[in-house]
Specification:
- It is a single chain.
- The protein is of the alpha+beta class and 946 residues long.
- Strands 6, 7, 8, 9, 12 and 13 form a six-stranded mixed beta sheet that branches.
- It starts with 16 loop residues before the first helix and ends in a 17-residue tail after the last helix.
- The chain binds adenosine-5'-triphosphate.
- The site of adenosine-5'-triphosphate has 22 residues, from strand 18, strand 20 and strand 22.
- Belongs to the protein kinase superfamily. Tyr protein kinase family.
């Protein structure tokens, strides 16, 4: 960035819209711009931009509180950026969805300090970094106004104080009311830095000034406790825990503070954390736990409770009313927190469960798991999780304020005959009066002991609860019904019930007969979404508006046709295509010499040599291969290997890496056939492996794809393998290796649920448009985004080529048609015809043979259409030629009845005529992960390795 020569003087303060229009229309060039304050929304700004003699105004929305995160409100490409300066810079590099990129700033002032991510080092920064208390004091006293100015690293004086100075300066700055929780360019807030090395009193002072003990570094997910643990600052660890910092927060890569302490050899901190005694929770589940409730029941109860609160206190802000329930809906089976947010919308948050490991050893015994919401901290009990969110709202739209108690439970009769709540809604009003619960009032350990040494308090707490947090669950949660819901159901179906179960879940009790009688009704209740309804047999009924039965076709075989060779494309056609944001970012990285740039070499040895000189932190085979060779090179290597022709010796390490992909046929056990494709049959089977150290044999379940006719399409088969070898992503089916016995075999990760298309055809009635379909769509977009980052176009994206490894995990497969793009190019042109799945193809693909990430986006649109049409074939019964004509004439696939309008709108945007008008995979991934109902759907979407 040319910050020195460009002093960011494009800020025009409270200039009105009309005045901005007048200014910009004075005959400047396209892309001339200014930024001004928004007159409609405090804290927001407006970007006014001249394009083709018109002035466009874009709202620049502020996200979060103290930190300066902004985005332009734009339908297709919303990118949240840190600082107005970064945002302007981003749109100066490329238009990124605007009609033109920003070119010439209309000069006036630099933007306010608190809106920037960067600045220049000033006097206050210098004095603070040198720990010159007197100078700092004098500067603040004489009315120096730039308290919150940032330096080149986005650090304020408070960041520098937390790093370099003593408490005196800290207090001077805090007295001057500086911002306490702003993040610098490394994603750190002042408390992150203080936690590294400062004494307890320093930390305490910062926390007393409202420093956020949960402040999360947006780069790596660290909270201050991670920093303290990693740097072995025991005092800070204790002080943070006293301030109710959660003891088990996770970094973006899933590390807990004790992991970081261990990695850094900070033994005393590691031991302290492992033995930390979590104080008892400040709330009990009698206040808010309702057992099994459907979403509709929960909403009704919550709204009713809020109304009652308002009736007694008309001015009360009822946001924060909440309850916890057990959902049996397949979309959200498990614990759900239902909450009234400040816009009076009811939000549902899935409470997930997980085991916790240290050094591969499970820390929780007895089958009980830790609980968490999204990427939030782990808690050993539901009570702890809820008391945490009653104290901190972080991660939720509001903190939990008003627990909605369950109705008193009817007495449990000696035999179980009470119908479940969803079958017969309760009518009695809640018995408990609506008392707001202050967690502080209940909490024996809220922050308020600045004068007491941390260890003394820790010892005191030890007496209150003599267990470490790693077995608290068993001690603090005697009613373990919540965690036994599954076993409860199982035991019910066997007609058995334990005493402890019946004592806490009387309202759920039912006999086997009742269960069976209620089954159709349960199905219809729990499966209904806002998009669909189901009849008593579980069959799908269309939305009442259309009133006709949706016929699910059964013949969805890929549609292919032979095409003649295609003419070379013209300059104009090249111009026609635009770069996706991934490509732009990549190019920018290359220009700035970044390491993420594409390596335009095919010379394996030279790349390997470079890597030997400067080995990457975690050198993976994947990167070795992807930077070192094209897929055709790999294919010919595999070909030589498979036919026994000696391969040219390269580096032995590279050879070893490649060899890892070869599996001896005797290590494979073939089982039943699970599918059949172009190359031949696909079998499930086992890969046997022997541990080199122990000699112990393990076996992994795999899918084995066999090449039926050895000679006809071997090259293509190997090409597919060589493409897959270079990919490693949670949303892409993994190639484990290839093997050459009597036949050539590709060994892949097994997707036990098979192809998504078949699954939808078989289980259409059980699939929720609002859950599975969105999760799958997001996962497919996520995998495609990764593929794009690896410079591949897939060319055969379709529901039949998505496999399901679990009900909540879709993976892209079938890379037989994939091609890698040449360095610097964003599309691939086929001059040869072939058998193409025309109905999934964009017009520029079937007309000109041009394939790009944007043409994959078109196919993605067709794929999600197939999903929401429950497996129907695109364009129905008409011929391929008619389908092409239809698309060319501007017609598009119709809105499936299951598909809500806002999703259909996205499908249509994928089918925009001009490739550059289509959304990117990054956008699509985020779009489907953002669910209006289940806020934490993104957790289900695997986003590793992007
Ligand atoms: N890794 C896997 N795990 C589980 N089932 C698989 C796996 N790979 C393939 N299958 C099953 O085998 C079927 C055929 O797969 P395959 O990839 O060979 O053929 P295809 O999808 O018809 O594509 P093509 O013929 O273009 O290769 C799939 O539809 C799927 O049901």
């Amino acid at each position: 960035m040319s910050r020195d020569s460009d002093p960011m003087k494009w800020y025009h303060g409270s200039l009105s819209r009309e005045a901005a229009d007048d200014l910009l229309k004075q005959g400047y060039e396209d892309g001339t711009f200014l930024v001004r304050e928004s007159s409609t929304a405090a804290g927001d700004f407006v970007l006014s931009l001249l394009c083709q003699e018109e002035v466009c105004h874009y709202q620049v929305r502020r996200h979060g509180g103290e930190d300066a995160f902004f985005s332009i409100d734009d339908k297709v490409q919303t990118k949240i950026l840190h600082g107005l300066d970064t945002l302007v810079d981003y749109y100066q590099q490329a238009a990124n969805g605007l009609p033109t990129k920003l070119t010439v700033p209309l000069i006036r002032d630099p933007p306010p300090h608190n809106t920037r991510s960067h600045g220049v080092t000033n006097l206050l920064h210098r004095a603070t970094a040198k720990n010159e208390s007197k100078v700092v004091f004098e500067l603040l006293k004489c009315g120096y106004r730039n308290f919150d100015a940032k330096n080149q690293d986005g650090q304020t004086a408070l960041h520098l104080a937390a790093l370099y100075s003593d408490e005196d300066i800290l207090k001077h700055l805090l007295n001057a009311k500086v911002q306490v929780n702003s993040s610098d360019s490394f994603g750190c807030q002042p408390l992150h830095y203080a936690a590294r090395s400062k004494p307890a009193s320093f930390i305490r002072t910062l926390i007393a000034a409202q420093a956020n003990v949960q402040g999360r570094n947006i780069e790596n997910g660290y909270v201050p406790l991670h920093e303290a643990a990693k740097h072995g600052n025991l005092e800070a660890v204790q002080e943070l825990l006293l301030a109710e910092a959660p003891p088990l927060p996770r970094t973006s890569s899933g590390e807990f503070p004790f992991d970081l302490a261990k990695e850094a050899g900070q033994t005393s901190v590691e031991e302290f954390l492992m033995n930390y005694k979590l104080p008892p929770a400040s709330t009990t589940r009698e206040q808010w736990y309702h057992g099994t409730l459907t979403r509709d029941e929960a909403v009704a109860i919550l709204k009713k409770h809020a109304q009652e609160l308002l009736a007694s206190q008309p001015q009360l802000d009822t946001s924060g009313c909440f309850l916890v329930r057990y959902s049996e809906s397949p979309a959200a089976s498990g614990l759900v927190l239902t909450l009234l947010s400040s816009d009076q919308m009811v939000k549902n948050f899935r409470i997930s469960q997980a085991d916790l490991y240290q050094n591969g050893v499970k820390l929780q015994s007895g089958g009980s798991k830790f609980l968490y919401i999204d990427d939030g901290p782990y808690w050993p009990s539901l009570e702890h999780l809820i008391s945490h969110f009653m104290r901190f709202s972080y991660g939720l739209p509001v903190s939990l304020k008003f627990p909605v108690p369950p109705q008193p439970k009817p007495e449990v009769p000696s035999f179980a005959t009470i119908p479940r709540s969803s079958v017969k809604p309760r009518t009695t009003p809640p018995a408990t009066p609506p008392t707001p619960v202050s967690p502080h009032a209940h909490s024996p350990h809220h922050h308020g002991h600045p004068h007491v040494p941390a260890l003394t308090i820790a010892k005191k707490k030890q007496k209150e609860n003599s267990s470490s947090m790693f077995n608290t669950l068993r001690l603090t949660s005697p009613k373990k019904a919540l965690f036994d819901m599954n076993s409860l159901r199982k035991s019910k179906s066997k007609g058995k019930r334990s005493e402890s179960e019946s004592s806490v879940s009387g309202s759920l009790a039912r006999t086997e007969q009742e269960l069976q009688a209620a089954a159709p009704m349960l199905k219809s209740l729990s499966f209904s979404t806002e998009f669909s309804t189901f009849n008593a047999d579980g069959g799908l009924v269309v939305a009442p508006a259309s009133g006709e039965l949706y016929n699910v076709p059964r013949n969805n075989t890929p549609i292919e046709m032979d095409l003649p060779p295609i003419a070379q494309k013209t300059e104009a056609e090249v111009e026609y295509f635009t770069k996706s944001d991934v490509a732009i970012e990549r190019e920018r990285a290359v220009q700035s010499g970044g390491v993420n740039g594409y390596q335009p070499t095919v010379d394996v040895l030279s790349v390997w040599d470079q890597q030997m000189i400067k080995p990457p932190a975690a050198a993976r085979l994947n990167s070795l291969i992807s930077t070192g060779s094209t897929e055709s090179e790999m294919a010919s290597y595999l070909q030589r290997k498979c036919s026994g022709t000696p391969t040219t010796p390269t580096s032995s390490a590279l050879e070893a890496a490649k060899l890892r992909f070869f599996i001896e046929p005797e290590n494979l056990v073939l089982e039943s056939e699970i599918g059949h494709g172009e190359f031949g049959s696909v079998h499930s089977g086992w890969l046997m492996r022997k541990s080199a150290a122990s000699g112990e044999e393990t076996r992994v379940e795999v899918a084995i794809k066999m090449l039926s006719d050895e000679h006809s399409n071997k090259q293509e088969f190997l090409r597919e393998a060589s493409v897959m070898m270079r990919l490693e992503h949670k949303c892409i089916v993994r190639l484990i290796g290839i093997s050459k016995g009597e036949m050539l075999m590709m060994v892949q990760e097994l997707a036990p649920l098979g192809s998504m298309l078949q699954y939808i055809l078989d289980h259409g009635a059980e699939i929720s448009a609002n859950s599975e379909l969105k999760v799958w769509a997001s996962q497919v977009a996520c995998g495609m985004h990764y593929l794009e980052s690896q410079h591949f176009v897939h060319r055969d994206l379709a529901a039949r080529n998505i496999l399901l490894t679990a009900r909540q995990q879709a993976k892209i497969s079938d890379f037989g048609m994939s091609r890698s793009l040449r360095p610097g190019s964003t599309e691939y042109q086929f001059t040869q015809g072939g058998r193409w799945p025309i109905r999934w193809y964009a017009p520029e693909s079937f007309n000109l043979g041009i394939f790009s990430h944007a043409s994959d986006v078109w196919s993605f649109g067709v794929t999600i259409w197939e999903m929401f049409a429950l497996g129907a074939p695109p364009y129905g019964e008409i011929s391929n030629v008619d389908a092409i004509k239809l698309v060319d004439s501007g017609e598009r696939l119709p809105q499936p009845s299951l598909c809500p309008a806002y999703i259909y709108a996205v499908m249509q945007s994928c089918w925009k005529e001009r490739p550059k008008d289509r959304p990117t995979f990054a956008y699509l991934m985020e779009f489907f992960a953002r669910d209006p109902d289940y806020q934490n759907l993104p957790e289900l979407v695997q986003t590793v390795h992007i």
